Amino acid sequence: MATDATQDSSKAGLVVAAYGRRGMLETTGGITLPYVVRGRRLQVCCGDSVHWQAFSANDPVVVSGVLPRRNELSRQPARGSKAETIAANISHLVIVMAALPAPDLFITDRYLCAARLMGAQAAIAWNKADLAPLPGAELAVYAAIGYPLFPVSATTGAGLDALLTWLGQGIGLLAGQSGVGKSSLLNRLVPGSNTATGGLSAASDEGRHTTTASVMYTLASGGRLIDTPGVRDFVPAIPELRDIAHGFVEIGATGRNCRFADCSHLREPNCAVNAAVAKGRIDARRHESYRRLMNLAGQAADNVY
Ligand SMILES: Nc1nc2c(ncn2[C@@H]2O[C@H](COP(=O)(O)OP(=O)(O)OP(=O)(O)O)[C@@H](O)[C@H]2O)c(=O)[nH]1
Ligand SMILES: [Mg+2]
Ligand SMILES: [Zn+2]
Q1: Domain-by-domain residue ranges, the chain?
Q2: Closest to 120 (Cα-Cα) out of 149, 85, 147, 91
Q3: Rounded to the nearest whole angstrom, what is the distance from the C-alpha of residue 82 to the centroid of ligand 2?
Q4: 179 lines ligand 1 (CB under 6 A)
Q5: Best residue among 97, 100, 197 to mutate for probing ligand 1, ranked by most atoms within 8 Å of CB
Q6: Who has the most CB within 10 Å: 172, 237, 249, 261?
Q7: What is the CATH number of domain 5-66?
Q8: Which homologous superfamily does the CATH classification assign to the domain defined by 73-79+86-227?
Q9: pLDDT in 10s for each residue of the chain, 305 residues
């Protein structure tokens, strides 16, 4: 909250990188400055709009307030742990996938769920298309429920114009498994950004977790793009279990026809969602994905509260 009494003399800024109490912000004039957060209570993350003041030319500027967030992407790291905010004020979430590391569609579903619940547009970028073409059959379910699929290559640059057009002037965020090429895409889209990239582990074909913090860059279009650390798993922080159904667009829509208004679409009688799964109108794996997330989020809630 921007409640600081000194806020009148403070200036506006945009957090482009946050490392705990410190980070980098961009002034309204487009200058990037190091900052430190005042006080213990203020939580600052990449994408936050903040108030800041300069007290001495040699010290980092001091962030004294955070404007209300339009939304935030948060994850539930482990049972009983507090949710971790990855970034705030996101308009477009790009889930990056590739043939290697092997895609985990459950992770994709959970990012899509998080995006929908936070009110961000979402799309899938199939990277490394130079190595393996977009698996149309496997990903058809996503096109069918309305998500754009962009085959791209950070190596050749193929497909990036379409992705850039979709991103527009918003604040985009690259999410996905470690090693799918998020930082490589960022480097290709923002020449000179020199973000570190890493190979895959020879033993496991998994990423090496090269990126360790979310960092925002500016695209030539003026839009923004945030590179995030890759994940091995992703469980969105969703306080209300009943919201999860609305994060799965086809389940939320079909669920309006269930017999019980508070139907969880798991085992209730006269569940329109279960009927649609039985008829093949809702993808059974997506429904399984929904069921698993309900279980995981339920366990997390049991442990936190
Ligand atoms: N052939 C090919 N290789 C790519 C492409 N994009 C990335 N790579 C390779 O994939 C590996 C991982 O790339 P990164 O950009 O570090 O992946 P990341 O998603 O940022 O990984 P984390 O930071 O660990 O989450 C590197 O060896 C890249 O060279 C691509 O389009 N084609
Ligand atoms: Mg990276
Ligand atoms: Zn139902």
Answers
A1: 5-66, 73-79+86-227, 241-300
A2: 91
A3: 24
A4: yes
A5: 197
A6: 172
A7: 2.40.50.140
A8: P-loop containing nucleotide triphosphate hydrolases (3.40.50.300)
A9: 444 444 468 999 999 999 999 999 999 999 999 999 999 899 999 999 999 999 999 999 999 999 999 999 999 987 668 899 999 999 999 999 999 999 999 999 999 999 999 999 999 999 999 999 999 999 999 999 999 999 999 999 999 999 999 999 999 999 999 999 999 999 999 988 988 898 888 888 889 899 999 999 999 999 999 999 999 999 999 989 999 999 999 999 999 999 999 999 999 889 999 999 999 999 999 999 999 999 988 877 665 43
User: Could you give phi then psi for residue 175, rounded to 5 degrees?
Assistant: -125, 160
Q: Which two tokens stand for residue 20?
A: 């705990």
Q: Return d(Cα 209, Cα 195) in angstroms, integer.
A: 13
Task: Please list all protein residues whose beta carbon sits less than 5 angstroms from ligand 2, which is an ion.
Answer: 182-183, 210-211
What's the whole-model pTM score? 0.94
Does ligand 1 come within 6 angstroms of the Cβ of 155? Answer: yes
- Token pair recorded at residue 49: 């709009």
Evaluate: CB of 209 within 6 angstroms of ligand 1. Answer: yes
User: From the CA of 296, how far away is ligand 2's center (Å)?
Assistant: 26
How far apart are alpha carbons 234 and 214 in whole angstroms?
15
Atom of ligand 1 nearest to the CA of 208: 24
Both tokens assigned to 180:
């799918």
Query: Domain 241-300, what architecture?
Result: Orthogonal Bundle (1.10)
The finding on whether 154 has its CB within 6 A of some atom of ligand 1 is: yes
**52 CA to centre of own chain:** 26
